[in-house]
Amino acid sequence: MVLTLVTMGTAQAETIKVVxxxxxxxxxxxxxxxxGFVPQLQAWLTEEGVDAxxxxxxxxxxTTAGGLARLDWSLDPDVDAMIxxxxxxxxxxxxxxxxxxENLEAILTQVxxxxxxxxxxxxxxxxxxxxxxxxxxxxxMYPALATQxxxxxxxxxxxxxxxxxxxxxxxxxxxxxxxxxxNKEGVAQIVAAFGPRVAELVARAEP
Length: 207
Description:
Elements: H1 2-11, E1 16-22, H2 24-27, H3 37-47, E2 52-58, H4 64-69, H5 71-74, E3 81-85, H6 88-93, H7 97-114, E4 119-122, H8 132-148, E5 152-154, H9 167-174, H10 184-205
Parallel strand pairs: 1-2, 1-3, 3-4, 4-5
Helix pairs in contact: 3-10, 7-8
Domain SGNH hydrolase-type esterase: 20-187
Protein name: Arylesterase
Pfam family, one: Lipase_GDSL_2
């Protein structure tokens, strides 16, 4: 009987630990506890029967450089996969895309290269007011890095909020008053769109 119990315990799959490394969009800025991206994503995965634990490593105001600086702290030995969602504060500060790309590449080199962990890279799209060259460089770095490191990709964190191409309607319905961060309903839209890709990430991490 003891041998049977041990065998059954060994056969059980281990919960996949996924760290979501990001900024205020990941952290759930301006929302009550439980309404942010990570808790809503956790609830979606649980409802879908995906055995994963999502760890919130989002820090409001963090740039790609900040994410790189605290990567070692976030990437403990138990981590099985990582979501990297950084770049919004680089945009707000007008940081050159070349610097942002270097920081993201350094993060992916450690996570995907050195540790061999699967990654979901979630980007953003630059506004047009920085000029076409800036926008092309910034928007292009996410798919280029995803290809380089064989990472899963979602091009724009906020893309699921756009209603029939109407940005004004999206802001009115899905954004907080600051026009930058999604409200609870907006986060739900994002999770519904990205949840299957996170499930795919978890599947990549399974032994």
